[in-house]
Amino acid sequence: MKKTELVTRTGNTYEKGVVQKVLQDNLQADGTRSGEQVVTVKMTTGVRKGEVIQMTSASGFLFGTACTPGLHVIVVQSVSGDSTVSSVYSRDRGGMILLFGLLYLATLIAVGGRQGLKASAGLIITFFIIIFIWIPLIYLRVSPIRSAVVICALTTILTFWCIGGISRKTITATLGTVSGVVIAGIFAEIFSLVTGISGWNVSNIETLLTIWESNRIKVGGLLFAGILISALGAEMDVAMSISSSMQEVCRQNPGISRWELFCAGMRVGRDMMGTDSNTLLLAFVGTEVSQLVLNFAYDLPAAQVLNSNNIGIAVMQGLSGSFGIVLSVPITVLIASWIFRGKPSESTERILQ
After folding, report:
1. 44, 64, 213, 228: which sits with the fewest CB atoms below 10 Å from its CB?
2. Is 64 helix (H, G, I), strand (E, B) or coil?
3. CB environment 130-140: b (16+ within 10 A), e (fewer)
4. 348 falls in which pLDDT band (50, 70, 90)?
5. Where are the domains of the chain?
6. What is the dihedral of CA 116, 118, 123, 126, to 10 degrees?
7. What mean pLDDT is reported for the chain?
8. pLDDT (tens digit, 9 = 90+) per residue, 292-313?
9. Distance in angstroms (rounded) separating the CA atoms of residues 147 and 154
10. Which CATH code for domain 12-92?
11. Which residue windows are transmembrane per the record (predicted)?
12. For position 343, what pLDDT does the model report?
């Protein structure tokens, strides 16, 4: 895919290296760091691979790191002929991030067995769909909201197919999940209309405007698309749990009526509403902890806090997803009541078994 060049990176690369010596430290007597370290780093990648280069490492919280001999780092390097300008960007975390990801998948498989393996496959599929399909679609100026709905449906179908194949249970869970995601999007849109909050009010709008000006990406829909994607996991959890429970009820009591099955499903769903709504709300609150602490420390007036864009967006995200969860419960239960108590044709029965 051809991308519009926003920043000239000619000659600039991010390479790996290992700190050899600290020639000048920036550690102060009180334990804090100020200024820059001067270090030597042996490059392990790039055009200067194998060479030991002297460079600086800033003491900032966003860039640079406290270097010690043997530390693996990422180096920002600009090479022009025999001239090289280098500085430490950060410590090399890529390997540990990958290791923790693999450790999680291994734990999931060890605890879940065959189902854990299927869940791992679904998780990997979800990751690739979002990174390699959804994000490029947005860059190609496809509507973020419409593409998010399609991606949510596709992710749900493939994930449930990996976990349980094509069955009444997975069909029920898929329909329930998609309905919950759509409901979350509807309530987010309503919240936006009545409060005036949109995708243009996010904190990084200045950076996004650069992309909008160069490529006309639909920036205004990114916020709502993110709400749909973030609500997907909780919606899948609710829908699959209800579907599995109701299927088990049918197996244990084959003669149960459709109404009795509906009532049983609602009892299960009501127990899940509170916990999953809390999960979603707390997840969004967790992303705003720093902002909440700042609001508390500066003793900001309630009117200022309630009407700030950051708080409004967090409330929109949490409540919209929670609306989707709560209202998806009766929808999923209703769908399950009809599917599990329906009379499919012989050919359909063979497919769904």
Report:
1. 213
2. coil
3. eeeebeebbee
4. very low
5. 12-92, 115-352
6. -160
7. 87
8. 898 889 999 989 988 888 888 8
9. 10
10. 2.40.50
11. 52-75, 95-113, 120-139, 145-163, 175-197, 217-234, 318-340
12. 52
Contacts of 290 (CB under 8 A, 6+ apart): none
Contact (CB, 8 A) for 332 and 173: yes
The per-residue pLDDT for range 25-84, each reduced to its tens digit, is: 988 888 888 889 999 999 999 999 999 999 999 877 778 899 999 999 999 999 887 788
**Residue with tokens 């030597």, as numbered in its chain:** 40
Do residues 192 and 224 touch, judged by C-beta distance below 8 A? yes
299, two tokens: 């003793």
Say yes or no: do domains 12-92 and 115-352 share a fold. no
Query: What are the tokens at 200?
Result: 């243009």
Closest CA to 6 of 201, 205, 202, 207: 207
Least confident range of 136-145, 160-169, 282-291: 282-291
Nearest-angstrom CA–CA distance, 277 and 156? 20
CATH class of 115-352: mainly alpha
